[in-house]
Amino acid sequence: MIHNFSASYAGHVVDENVGLDGMPANERSYTNEQLIQSFDWALDISKHLEKLGFQEFWMAEHHFQPEGYEAIPNLLMLGLYLSTQTEKLKLGCGFNIVPMWHPLRLAEDFAMADILSKGRVIFGVGRGYHTREVETFGAPMLDSDANRELFEEQVEVMVKAFTQEKFSHHGKHYQLPPDVPYRGYQLKELTLVPRPLTQPVEIWQPLVSANPRGIDFMARMGIKPLIANNPAPALAEKLEMLQTARAKYGKETGLGEDVALGCRMFIAETKEKAIKLARPYFEEAMKFAGPLGVMPLTPEQNASVVNKGRTPGVALPTLDEAVEAGSWLCGTSEDMVAHFKGIEEQYPGIERVNVGAVMGMPLEVFKDQLSIVAEEVMPAFKG
């Protein structure tokens, strides 16, 4: 049953001139002073969430975005800082993009954040989706199979480092430790110093596609998925595949257990008003995500997005369609309660709901939406 409400923020500072009629994504460029406002936003949101009674705040790691969409390059540093500015809110890494790290450096940094925050930083891993950042750091992104192969080995290394006092790893990408002499003996094992105090380390990962290999890996490694913005049939498919994969490794779980459900929502007095108010944010997200392959648009649709949706004969997805499909939630507070009660009934194992800040949504608009969720939706699920 749902009892954990969290929010996510990818680090945008874009909040004006948004939507199809606004500035094209590739023409946006912000000053350093403007970009670092994402840290102020994160602090403001974290304090607001704690005051409202949310349990967690998730943020995203990204790099090299002068366009101002995702401007947080280090989640562990920011999460640790926010833990000093709040009292009990947990800070989620959603997600550390593992191929851009050496796995042992990431494991060490998380261990320090875990210790210094007294267990309030939640570990999360992802494969990435921006060629500009992943390939710049020397990891594969265009080659999806190579990216997945590297990611899986890196996660295996980190799990060993977290759980074993002494460990070694010999794989395709890493030979740990290297076979070198050290202070009079031949090096054969390593110890992560420090190791996390919170054991076992809870690892979260976004579950984006119903790729059997990816789901099997998550089940084998005990990774918990965040499944966001899925219409009902896609959500059902992923939850069933995950449950089957876990059972293969002897982990019997209820349908939806150890899963977080992410959603993009907008609440207003009527469904029609909610759609009208949220439309610019839907369109800004499309401008940002379509050309990156995150939102399934055709080349003609992507060209029309750049042309502010004015290409004759080319129809673009609409928020109305997304709401009808269930990938966006727009309506009244009562509609949201009914939706999540339906989720509870269908998937009694689901306990966690995450409310996302969409690209282009101003800080105060997001905070107001969070207040509505806390005051008019969450009470229906407490206890």
Structure write-up:
Helix content is 42%, strand content 14%. By secondary structure, it is of the alpha/beta class. The protein has one domain: TIM Barrel. Strands 1-2-3-5-10-11-12-15 form an eight-stranded parallel barrel. Strands 6-7 form a two-stranded antiparallel ribbon. A hairpin with a 4-residue loop joins β6 and β7.
Which helices and strands occur, and which strands form pairs?
Elements: E1 4-9, H1 32-35, H2 37-52, E2 56-59, H3 75-85, E3 90-93, E4 96-97, H4 103-116, E5 121-126, H5 131-134, H6 144-163, E6 169-170, E7 175-176, E8 181-182, E9 185-186, E10 203-206, H7 212-221, E11 224-228, H8 232-248, E12 260-263, E13 265-267, H9 271-289, H10 299-306, H11 319-325, E14 329-331, H12 333-346, E15 352-356, H13 363-377
Parallel strand pairs: 1-2, 1-15, 2-3, 3-5, 4-5, 5-10, 10-11, 11-12, 12-15, 13-14
Antiparallel strand pairs: 6-7, 8-9
Helix pairs in contact: 2-13, 3-4, 4-6, 7-8, 12-13
Protein traits:
alpha/beta, TIM Barrel, eight-stranded parallel β-barrel, 15 strands, 42% helix
Query: Count of DSSP E strands?
Result: 15
Order of strands across the widest beta sheet? Answer: 1-2-3-5-10-11-12-15
What is the H/E string?
EHHEHEEHEHHEEEEEHEHEEHHHEHEH
Helix content: 40-55%
User: Quick one: overall form?
Assistant: globular
N- to C-terminal separation?
9 Å
- Briefly note the structural class of the backbone: alpha/beta
Q: What is the CATH topology?
A: TIM Barrel
Report a brief summary of the structure.
The chain has 383 residues and is of the alpha/beta class. It is 42% helix and 14% strand. It has one domain (4-380): TIM Barrel (Alpha-Beta Barrel).
